[in-house]
Amino acid sequence: MNKKIDRRTSGLDGKVAIITGSNRGIGKAIVLELGRQGAAIVLNGRNSRRLKLIKREMATKGFIAVSFRADVRNPHECRELIEFAVKSFGRIDFVINNAAAFSRGSVEKMAPSNFSCLMETNYYAPAYLCKYAIPHLRKTKGTLIFVNSVSGFYGFPYNVAYAASKMAQAALAQALEIELFDDKIHVGILYAGYTENEEEKIMLDEDGSLVYLPQRSNVRLATRESVARAVADMIVNRTRKKTLSFLGHFAEISSRYFPRFARRFLIWKRDAIRQYYTLTGGSRVTSLRSSKVPDSLV
Questions:
Q1: What are the C-alpha distances in Å from 38 to residues 13, 28, 31, 168, 215?
Q2: Residues 11-20: pLDDT tens digits?
Q3: Given phi > 0 = left and psi -120 to 50 = alpha, else beta, which region is 52?
Q4: Where are the domains of the chain?
Q5: Which residues pair with 96 in a beta bridge?
Q6: Which residue is catalytic, options 162, 194, 212, 277?
Q7: Global pTM?
Q8: Is residue 276 annotated as a catalytic residue, yes or no?
């Protein structure tokens, strides 16, 4: 049975957490949840203004937080982020790999730049950050958390760049769990389902242009706060894997135990998936250029 979490009993007081992509969305919800439970937070993102706003919000709530602007797709900046955290607090206990980029579209029509952008953000970035965090987590017997997706279970059609990058991230987490076993570093992966997104959340369309992530009304959405609580629960209980939503459990069970059924199901639902889950909605972004990935994408 999982422990009941609150600030007095969760054991997060005095602990230090780095959260990537923490200036909005799920990342911000994780920041507030861990701060509520007593952890000191190292905020990270690429938008300095948003980082200042959430740092100010944390201060008004009496939470401890510092911020460091870094593009975690850059290994040099990942190392600087880790060094900043250690310099600020003297230790690192938790690293939550949350920053993510999104896209949609078929392989045939997908802009080549979409593949590289998603792999850099969803796979390379957490790999770089883990590389530099591990020596410090070894000292604290700390935790690495990967905020993954239901797409990490199977190569979903019309969402292939995102699914491939999340499956690669899952492989990274699985490998690290074994590599770090003797060091007693906890590695956990959270498979989140469809979650409420902010109005200005941006994704890459199949041609490489930018569109606003549509507000979905055809699926049941989890709240950002519920995902944040799941992350906190994984840290406290040192849980190695947690799957959220009915869709997530369906994808996990069918792909693992009934792969032939999973394949046939996706073939049967291919038109619906294309129409209702990947190519629906999303107005064009006209004020930004996709040649430079905007801060709101990661």
A1: 4, 15, 11, 32, 33
A2: 799 999 999 9
A3: alpha
A4: 16-297
A5: 19, 145
A6: 162
A7: 0.89
A8: no
